[in-house]
Amino acid sequence: MSDAPTTADAWNGPVGRHWAEHHDRYDAMLDGFNDALFGAAALGDRDRVLDVGCGSGGTTREAARRAPRGSVVGVDVSEPLLARARALSDRDARIRYERGDAQVHPFRAAAYDVVISRGGVMFFADHTAAFRNIAGALRPGGRLAFVCPRPASADSQEGRVLGRLATLLGRGGPVGGGLAGAMASLSEPGRVEEVLTGAGFHAIRATPVTEDTRWGEDAADAVDFFLSRMPGLTVADGTRTAMCEALRPYETGRGVLLRAGVWVVTASLPDRPGRRARRA
Ligand SMILES: C[S@@+](CC[C@H](N)C(=O)[O-])C[C@H]1O[C@@H](n2cnc3c(N)ncnc32)[C@H](O)[C@@H]1O
């Protein structure tokens, strides 16, 4: 058996601790995608919702607001993030969190109407098996809506600017705590279709959405945050200044904003198990 660190190790180690400590930063970065995610999820008043890879629970709490007579369970593999999620949600009895690896977690069968995820479904070793397990938690006819990154492209300010910051630091590749490959694992719609069809979903649709991601109050603040994701790195003053200059054009009255692209993926289960899949 391999001793190589898994993504679960990363989310229970420095990466997860960083997300937990800076949950408000990460929410500010990702909240711009909420309208597209929840528009696609089209939650009903009484829906029972499962939030996969819920992290510190920003979308779990938002789902509870949008399904005022429903309930929401957030599942995540990361203890530090779940601790943060619980601390932020303690007043709402309709929200519950479970620690588990969504690939194999023993979800209650057919217990949910809708599964949502904001960037929590890319980190699986076997995506088809994982989504099959998640499908088992959905009732027949249940819906899935998730957000995952689109491939970095020339029009992605975020990809381009973060790449520039990494280059200034003398780091060739993307910066992502060793998770960059997993982050991109569902970036090709053909792959999404293959995975979800294999897991029993139909009506699969991937819609491109581009929104602002907020990286900090101003360029200096954004650089501090960017560098905080690489603890122990010593950065020369000149490099820090050059990084600030790279971010300066993106300073706005609402902070440092970088446009970034995601797919909003929707799919559903057949009304009756075993019915033939069809396309959206
Ligand atoms: C990019 S973060 C997104 C967190 C949260 N959805 C948000 O929008 O703030 C990815 C999340 O997926 C979780 N995760 C990764 N692999 C997982 C797995 N196999 N099962 C459950 N959660 C997982 C991580 O712990 C992390 O909280």
From TrEMBL:
**Group of enzyme by EC:** transferase
Pfam families named among the record's database cross-references: Methyltransf_25 (PF13649)
KW Methyltransferase (keyword) present: yes
Q: Per its record, what are the GO molecular function terms?
A: methyltransferase activity
Q: Which UniProt keywords apply?
A: Methyltransferase, S-adenosyl-L-methionine, Transferase
Lineage: superkingdom? Bacteria
Annotated GO biological processes are: methylation
Record has Iron-sulfur as a keyword: no
Provide the E.C. number(s) assigned to this enzyme. Answer: 2.1.1.-
| Xref: Gene3D superfamilies | Vaccinia Virus protein VP39
Methyltransferase domain span: 49-142
The cross-references to InterPro entries, in alphabetical order and at most eight, read: Methyltransf_25 (IPR041698), SAM-dependent_MTases_sf (IPR029063)
Under what name is this protein listed?
Class I SAM-dependent methyltransferase
Instruction: Give the organism, scientific name.
Output: Streptomyces albidochromogenes
